Amino acid sequence: MSSSNESITPSEYIEHHLQNLRISLGDGGFWQIDVDSLVMSIIVGVVGLGVFWLVARRVTAGVPGRLQGFVELVLEFVDNTVKDVFPGDRKFLSPLALTIFVLVFMMNLMDLIPLDFVAKATEAMGLPHWKAVPSTNLSVTFAMSFTVFILIIFFSFKSKGVGGFVHELFTAPFGSSPAMWIPNLAINIIELISKPVSLGMRLFGNMYAGELIFMLLGLLGMLGGVFTAGSIILSWGWAVFHILIILLQAFIFMVLSVVYIAMAQEHH
Questions:
Q1: Domain boundaries, given as residue ranges, for the chain
Q2: Nearest-angstrom CA–CA distance, 104 and 95
Q3: Which of 7, 22, 139, 151 is the most exposed place for a label (fewest CB within 10 A)?
Q4: Low-confidence ranges of the chain (pLDDT < 50)
């Protein structure tokens, strides 16, 4: 459904672009798969991380080319960021941080593709709905944030042991007095759960809001004439500004993931 179709209303235009290509599993429809988000996540992940893999295979010791220089710059930036947060062994955290940053950035980058271009292309292939930005899907952002949550629990067990982790749940931050066990446990559970929830909601909220602004600007194109030109200019201006948001959200998701995992290895 493109904006050139003057028979649709603004609400129908927005509703169309907010719908995922979704299939239900089973009769109840409780389990569903957002096919577009799943496919786009795989594509951008393969493209983004594939570029780094190809550069790593062709790395030269001499003067690097532009692409190799760019990749080395990103690698150094991510590694230094992890080093500032966690001065210990970074053999796992640095590659993880790089993977998160590249994947989230590539997901967010899809927001710069004009909505109506995506709609026309997918409709030509017989697909009624297709959201090209996986990070505007709450299921995707929560899947990533709860994966980080699993790593938080894993590294908590690894560094403190199961007994040490459970002991910390009941004794921090108010001490080991039996009277403080319940308050300590409640606070620590809330803190643990809030990490993946805030991590996933922050990325989703910012990218979803940016997508809505693109939709509102695209609505101007439905009015024709000078408004079409205004829609193009305003959309271009917002896209330029949105590049900063795309980078910033990928950086924030990466840093918070590293911070949470590093905090899990601290002893109280």
A1: 10-264
A2: 14
A3: 7
A4: 1-5, 225-226
| The model's pTM | 0.89
Q: Are 59 and 75 in contact (CB under 8 A)?
A: no
Place of tokens 């080395």: 72
Asked if residues 196 and 146 have their Cβ atoms less than 8 Å apart, the reply is yes
Cβ burial of 196 (10 Å; 0-12, 13-18, 19+) is buried
CB contact at 8 A, 24 and 31: yes
Alpha-carbon distance of 78 to 75, in angstroms, equals 5
- End-to-end Cα distance, the chain: 56
The whole-number pLDDT of residue 218 equals 77
Cβ distance 204 to 136 under 8 Å? yes
- How many separate helices (H) and strands (E) can be counted in the chain? 8, 2
Q: Show which residues are catalytic.
A: 198, 202, 206
Which positions ≥6 away from 217 have C-beta within 8 Å? Answer: 231, 234, 235, 238
- Is there a contact between 203 and 104 (Cβ–Cβ < 8 Å)? yes
Per residue in 139-156, pLDDT (tens digit) is 999 999 999 999 999 999
